[in-house]
Amino acid sequence: MQNRFHFGVWTVSGLVGLAMLAEAQPADVRPRAREAGILVGSLTPGPFNAITDVEGVRVGHSTVSEGRAIHTGVTAILPHAGNLYLERVPAAIHVVNGFGKLTGISQVRELGELETPILLTGTLSVWKAADAMVEWLLAQPGMEEVRSINPVVGETNDGVLNDIRARPIRFEHVTHALRTAAGGRVEEGAVGAGAGTVAFGWKGGIGTSSRTLPSSAGGYTVGVLIQSNFGGDLRIAGVPVGRQLSRLRKAKRNPGDGSIMSVVATDAPLSARNLERLAARAVAGLARTGSNLSNGSGDYVIAFSTALECRRRAGESVHHVAELSNHSMTPLFQAVAEATEEAIYNSLFRATTVCGFRDTIEALPLEDTLAALRKAGAIQGGP
Q1: Structural domain contains residue 90
Q2: Containing H/E element for 156?
Q3: Which is the most buried residue in 29, 55, 110, 178, by most CB within 10 A?
Q4: Is 259 annotated in the active site?
Q5: What domain count does the chain have?
Q6: How far from 25 is each of 22, 137, 362, 366, 367, CA to CA, in Å?
Q7: Residue 310: per-residue pLDDT
Q8: Is 299 marked active-site?
Q9: What is residue 15's predicted lDDT score, i.e. its pLDDT?
Q10: Residue 287 sits in a domain of what CATH number?
């Protein structure tokens, strides 16, 4: 059987009636958390409530599926539409727990900039994805004399649903995600790098969210995209949903290992120093969902700024920009925490049940989840 991969953009036509929600429904019927009445924090999302609300940011997926054995893929995040190697953006990486195989980390930390798109994939495909992206970049116009590239590729282990040792990611999967990356709505759930992930014992995946600051705080936007694949005791809007679902369904609890990759974008003019501070605050949103940040979890946050005044042409000396003051960072800290929390919920809400290599992982049961949230008064606008 041939591998099948795709890129797509989902749409919804308004609030989905709570009575219609069921875990067996397809992804285009399952709502995002906010559509189901779960409002996280007090800041306002951008138009798409996605990382692509940061102007210029694009996201692409390749979802690779082959029978029960293969459920994996690639997700690409591009900070702008140009050649990133020739027009670099400031960046930082915050390590929460370093049990991971993130390539490119040392140079980003040393120089404080990104020179390639960010790729997410499965653990044992990191180096194949990195090699494919380097080959694709070297073929771009203006790259004829380039002799060094620092590919940034993150991962989580999708070995429960995916035959990870098969390492099925190929050149065409990576280039498809890169070439078809687009702005606007972002497909979430069991797609791209989230095709085979598991979070809190339920099907995880790709999730995204954004927050826009009021004009009094600069009007900047912060967007987050996550690849959820971790354990803990699931809480939604402060409600211990995981415990209640375990009692109702006798579900297998997932107390342990797993990982999360988080990508943070902002149009605020920040240097690598304050981007690292921003990345660190994403952990507040992760913690609110009940993650236990286990020993075997590879948890990383990559943050970058798209502000034009912060970009640097390859070969130019580092220049100092009029970045925001430290005192101006607090609203951005709030924004990244809220967007991270909601992005994780979206990864669970949008994911669908997958029958995989070693097990079948069910989608989060939305009827029971929303009933628990409604009983706790955590649903806005519901019956």
Answers
A1: yes
A2: strand 152-156
A3: 178
A4: yes
A5: 1
A6: 6, 39, 12, 10, 11
A7: 87
A8: yes
A9: 27
A10: 3.60.70.12
What is the rounded distance in angstroms from the CA atom of residue 181 to the CA atom of residue 179?
Answer: 6
Residues 6+ apart with CB under 8 A from 265: 51, 54, 57, 77, 79, 222, 223, 224, 303, 304, 305, 306
> In the numeric block, which tokens belong to residue 13?
């036509």
Would residue 305 be called left, alpha or beta, if left means φ above 0 and alpha means ψ between -120 and 50 degrees?
Answer: beta
- 132: phi then psi, degrees, rounded to nearest 5: -65, -40
- Tokens describing residue 263: 């990508």
**Which residue is catalytic, options 297, 305, 347, 368?**
297
pLDDT of res. 255: 52
327: burial class by Cβ within 10 Å (0-12, 13-18, 19+)? Answer: exposed
Residues in Cβ contact with 313 at an 8 Å cutoff, skipping those fewer than 6 apart? 86, 87, 88
Choice between 257 and 13, residue whose per-residue pLDDT is larger: 257
Q: Which residue out of 158, 163, 299, 368 is catalytically annotated? A: 299
Q: How far apart are CA 110 and CA 112, in angstroms?
A: 6
Do residues 107 and 114 make contact, with C-beta atoms less than 8 angstroms apart?
no
Spot the catalytic one: 62, 65, 259, 262. Answer: 259
3-state secondary structure of 197: coil
| Interval 93-108: pLDDT, tens | 999 999 999 999 999 9
pLDDT at 253: 55
53 is catalytic: no
> How far is the CA of 244 from the CAs of 48, 144, 241, 348, in angstroms?
31, 58, 5, 16
Residue 248 within a domain: yes
Instruction: Quote the Cα angle for 184-285-157, to 5°.
Output: 75
Residue 8, pLDDT > 50, answer no
Does residue 140 belong to any structural domain of this protein? yes
Given a cut of 80, is residue 4 above it in pLDDT? no
Residue 98 lies in a domain: yes
